Amino acid sequence: xxxxxxxxxxxxxxxxxxxxxxxxxxxxxxxxxxxxxxxxxxxxxxxxxxxxxxxxxxxxxxxxxxxxxxxxxxxxxxxxxxxxxxxxxxxxxxxxxxxxxxxxxxxxxxxxxxxxxxxxxxxxxxxxxxxxxxxxxxxxxxxxxxxxxxxxxxxxxxxxxxxxxxxxxxxxxxxxxxxxxxxxxxxxxxxxxxxxxxxxxxxxxx
Length: 206
Known about the structure:
alpha/beta; two-stranded antiparallel ribbon; 22% strand
């Protein structure tokens, strides 16, 4: 286990209620025989995150039950489930809940991933994680030059991110203000950054 792996925690935002998907929580959508939350946790762990915090919201009890039934957390001692009671306020509230849950862990950075982007796997996550240098690091995947996920947020930035994360913007406002500090990592050759937001997007699931 390397020092970098210990210092960079995975943070999976999986609270979305799937409003445009008939109210189906995105974490429970099936892909290759498993819920999306399982794929995302596996990808973060394969990318080297020995600690993964998963922020739940919509139908959190049902998501927990499915994860238990599928044995998703078996052998994953570093996986922590964090419930966000304010998930309906948007992704920003989930990002804040997740970063707050990491504050006392000793992690020096969070590798932030979204549960509804199954086309982004361990290879892209590894590239972004490898950009970590210290608690001041800001690293973002890009796709044909356009910033996307995953994003690595050094711990020195967490307070600033939480102060500006509102609605569904997440860390967008903070990253825009600190754009010159962001190390960009092209991932378009190893990942596809589509979102599962609408019924039409379900075609991406297998």
